[in-house]
Amino acid sequence: MIKNELWPKMNEAIVAGDRAAAAALAGDAVRSGLDLLEVIERGYVPGIEKVGELWEQGEYFLPELISSAEAMKAAMAVLEPELNRKNIGARMGGKVVIGTVEGDIHDIGKNLVASMLQAGGFEVFDLGADVKLERFIEKAEAVGAGMICLSALLTTTMTNQRRLIGLLRDKGLRDKYKVLVGGAPASRKWAEEIGADGYAENAVAAVKLAKSLAGRA
Ligand code: B12
User: Fold this and answer.
1) Cβ(1) – ligand 1 distance below 6 Å
2) How far does CA 111 lie from the centroid of its chain?
3) Among 62, 122, 196, 201, which one has the highest count of C-beta atoms within 10 angstroms of its own C-beta?
4) Of 86, 111, 131, which closes a domain?
5) How far does residue 181's CA lie from ligand 1's centre (Å)?
6) Which domain holds residue 29?
């Protein structure tokens, strides 16, 4: 199937919360040998962005949101192994620990960033969502990571990004890690205010930033 036909179908599968279609289209993309980063960015991300708009306009409610999130996960479950396979032997970016901070269950954006970092050659340790702050540090110490990526989608939980940096300072570990923050309420200004090493507004920019901080840009 040609790309121009594929993108709207992928968009639609996410907006409709159609898991089977989202996964089947991802399978088509893999078999056609398409650039999977382009598939994610042009096929699926606009779909989930549209869902966010529909929610904000009061047209979508919780059940629709959850179905769309599930459809996104179904597509990523097909694409991720393939992205990883292509990167075997190319893990030169270093190790990254990522998760959504404590008190926050939003994980769609975080999952995208994790997949793209993996595709960009980083070894990614994804702790999931609603992650206790201590766990980020324990994991980073255990695996010898160089970077900690914190996602937060709520104004009430973004403060945990600041707390994590404070915890690192208290433990004398601040200089050991690059800390990247992101999520809808975060901004460059916020990152500066809390003393993070960087902020990126989307997954593609996150990979660019991570590469430059890792000295690979
Ligand atoms: C989907 C969604 C949900 C789903 C989440 C499903 C899931 N598995 O993630 C469900 C329905 C469960 C949900 C629940 C809630 N939600 Co909600 N949700 C959304 C919604 C519509 C879309 C979020 C999303 O997935 N966007 C798409 C992804 C691709 O974008 P993204 O997350 O921003 O990620 C991108 C970038 O930010 C960046 N990025 C993300 N993380 C990171 C990390 C790093 C390190 C970097 C560099 C970059 C980066 O890259 C990503 C990819 O490009 C937003 C609205 C919005 N416009 O954001 C509300 C929104 C975030 N939710 C909101 C609220 C209030 C809630 C609830 C509290 C609702 C309730 N009353 O129960 C609960 C939260 C429960 C909890 N404790 O967490 C509010 C937050 C308001 C605020 N200012 O705090 C929002 C803004 C909606 C609104 N306008 O009211 N939600």
Assistant:
1) no
2) 4
3) 122
4) 86
5) 14
6) 3-86
